[in-house]
Design goal:
heterodimer, A: 336 residues, ABC transporter involved in vitamin B12 uptake, BtuC, two-stranded antiparallel sheet, 13 helices, 2 strands, disordered C terminus, B: 330 residues, mainly alpha, 15 helices, globular
């Protein structure tokens, strides 16, 4: 991966050229949204909106959950996000429900805490045992995925009452309640930013040694980044429970690669140090819109993978070729 | 050659976490084998060792391509799709009675060409390899699905089962030919990486792509070629696997998505690029195969097996693969 040139000042990049990579993602997403509206005129109609939101929220939260670990650099990558979604879903259905913990105010915080705890374990091994993040989270991936199938070999068709409530909506369909989970995730991120934690993670991610010599406790920051990612994955697991309204061990793991792809599509550097959550959220939206477009066009199930791959390839090339041109021009202006 | 007098220092260095220790890795491969021998009856019988060697060879050949990509600072998620493609193409052509030499050439060329496409896109547009290879995997996997209509078709080339069977031997050597092929590829690859300018360029571009470009080392060409090679090795693995599947099975590669990466990282190669080598990936493939076989011996069900394997990978890598502490890097 060629190190992208940092763009501290963006001035006079050209009139017709988008000013930041994020602008390109916005344009690509907007085009896809229009395409969806053309194919399905009722795409954003109130009767379909809750279902659409339900499908989108787990992917969006999973993408957000992948952000802090990638941002913290050092090869940071959390492969365990997908299975963590799955295990939260299964714990909510197969452990908390039989134990009588069905009240939203008890089981929702417990699920988020479970996510944070798994994230914290990843973070502790990455930060203090100093193993490569991909080894650690691959290990967690296998453990969680295996554990999920042990706890629930067959899908179970019941879900806690809060899942049914969250799949409803207010204002006659215009305000799906599943978006509450996404809002909660964003609030968590805003809180982390307000506390200065995100800045520390970026500092560690862009140059761990420089951060260390400036007195940043690099290990602790990385640990926190994985724990934060875990908490967001916990929320994503709740959203998954709302979506499938049951317990299923096989759904969660599929989110891992989609989440990382969303982060990359959103223009965050996979080498760490650059980016926030706006890009990944748009990236998740792009992936989601591609999928809904393909299913609306009734593409044959055999062809859907081919088309999905091609569109993803085109989207990522458009995003980064224009983004790179912006970067190069800015670098040229600075004389770099 | 390992300098024996330096060994204690190296082991101490490894326990302090100064990079990944090669001696520690070899030690782990031996220790896991000894553990399997004492815990699982029949683990060290010649037939079981041969079976493990064949499995390690399949994983190891796919991991050669993956490690080249990783040394260059990228990752290849299209390995499983290309294994599936190689498998289906070989079976299809063999079913049509095509000449074996042609089959091998077509499979290798297809893998090389598809990998080259990923590599060129990644290098030319500076796109994250993870997304590009994921997308290419989706296109190739879907293409194979469309082509085969999701059915098992064709047959294994007649010479292949003998080539990959664990009971086969290579001339006077009591080792299946596929294992000999793997060892040969690893040795040749390791020599090329160490001793040729092309190999050094690969490391250089992995350590610091910007510096490599400023030194006029064409990192774009290097990247395109390593992805092409990765595609070629994946397709080769797929073809060899027809001996096991008995026909073209497009899902045969699925297990190799994470295991090819696991072999590379368990071998102590850094995913940040520029650190490690082909021999390490081979040792990683051996360690991983030993662990999996060990767990199969405990007759756990497959999901419990997977959970234990995940924990074991982390525990094993702790013994030799710790990174240096930041305070020691300054």
């Amino acid at each position: 991966m060629t190190a992208a040139v940092a763009v501290p000042r963006r001035r006079a990049v050209g009139l017709r050229m988008p000013r930041s990579p994020l602008a390109v993602v916005v344009v690509v997403t907007a085009c896809l949204l229009v395409a969806n509206l053309v194919v399905t005129p009722g795409f954003l109609a109130p009767d379909r909106l809750p279902g659409t939101a339900e499908l989108f929220v787990p992917l969006a939260l999973a993408a957000m959950a992948s952000v802090p670990s990638i941002l913290s650099g050092g090869g940071g990558l959390d492969l365990s996000v997908g299975p963590l979604l799955g295990i939260v879903n299964i714990v909510a259905v197969a452990i908390l429900m039989p134990a009588g913990l069905v009240a939203a105010e008890v089981s929702i915080p417990l699920c988020v805490l479970l996510g944070a705890a798994v994230g914290a374990i990843n973070g502790a091994v990455v930060a203090f045992v100093r193993l490569q993040p991909i080894v650690v989270t691959l290990g967690t991936y296998l453990v969680l995925d295996g554990l999920a199938l042990v706890l629930m070999p067959q899908p179970v068709g019941t879900a806690p009452p809060w899942a049914a409530w969250l799949s409803g909506s207010w204002l006659g369909g215009f305000a799906p309640r599943s978006l509450l989970l996404l809002v909660a995730g964003c609030l968590l991120w805003v809180l982390a930013r307000r506390l200065g934690f995100v800045t520390l993670v970026r500092a560690v991610g862009s140059d761990a040694r420089a951060a260390f010599t400036s007195g940043v406790r690099v290990g602790l920051v990385r640990f926190g980044a994985y724990a934060l990612g875990g908490a967001l994955a916990g929320l994503a697991g709740l959203a998954l429970t709302v979506l499938i309204n049951s317990g299923d061990a096989t759904v969660g793991p599929q989110y891992t690669l989609a989440a990382v792809a969303a982060v990359a599509l959103g223009g965050n550097a996979l080498s760490g140090g650059r980016g926030g959550i706006a890009g990944p959220l748009l990236g998740a939206l792009t992936l989601f819109l591609i999928q809904s477009l393909l299913s609306a066009l009734a593409v044959s199930s055999l062809w859907i993978q081919v088309v999905h791959g091609s569109v993803l390839l085109a989207a990522v090339c458009i995003n980064s070729s224009i983004g790179a041109r912006v970067g190069r021009r800015a670098a040229a202006i600075q004389g770099g | 050659m390992v300098d024996v007098s330096a060994l204690p220092t190296r082991l101490r260095a490894a326990s302090r976490g100064v990079g990944a220790s090669g001696a520690g890795l070899v030690l782990v491969v031996v220790l896991v084998f000894l553990a399997g021998r004492s815990l699982v009856p029949g683990y060290s019988q010649p037939s079981s060792i041969r079976a493990m060697a064949v499995l390690a060879a399949f994983l190891g050949i796919a991991a050669i391509g993956q490690v080249l990509v990783v040394l260059n600072g990228h990752i290849d998620l299209s390995v499983p799709a290309l294994i599936g493609a190689g498998n289906v193409i070989a079976a299809r052509l063999a079913g049509d009675g095509v000449n074996p030499v042609v089959i091998v050439l077509v499979v290798l060329a297809t893998g090389f060409a598809i990998g080259l496409v990923s590599g060129v896109v990644i290098a030319r547009w500076n796109v994250p390899s993870l997304v590009v290879t994921l997308a290419v995997a989706s296109v190739v996997g879907g293409g194979v699905l469309v082509w085969t209509k999701a059915q098992l078709l064709g047959e294994a080339p007649s010479w292949l089962p003998g080539f990959t069977s664990s009971a086969a031997s290579t001339g006077p050597l009591p080792v299946p030919p596929v294992v000999v092929l793997w060892i040969g590829l690893v040795l040749v690859g390791a020599y090329l990486l160490r001793a040729t300018p092309a190999g050094r360029k690969l490391y250089l571009a992995g350590v610091n792509p910007r510096a490599a470009r400023l030194m006029l080392v064409g990192d774009r060409t290097v990247t395109a070629v390593v992805f092409a090679l990765s595609g070629m090795f994946a397709a080769l693995t797929g073809m060899l696997l027809t001996g096991f599947t008995g026909g073209g099975l497009y899902t045969v590669g699925e297990a190799y998505l994470f295991s090819s990466i696991a072999a590379v990282v368990v071998g102590g190669n850094s995913l940040l690029g520029g650190r490690g080598g082909i021999v390490r990936a081979a040792l990683g493939a051996i360690a991983l195969t030993e662990l999996t076989t060990l767990l199969v011996g405990f007759s756990l069900d497959s999901s419990a097996q997977q959970a234990v394997l995940g924990a074991l990978i982390v525990v094993v890598v702790v013994t030799y693969g710790r990174e240096q502490a930041l305070r020691d890097q300054i």
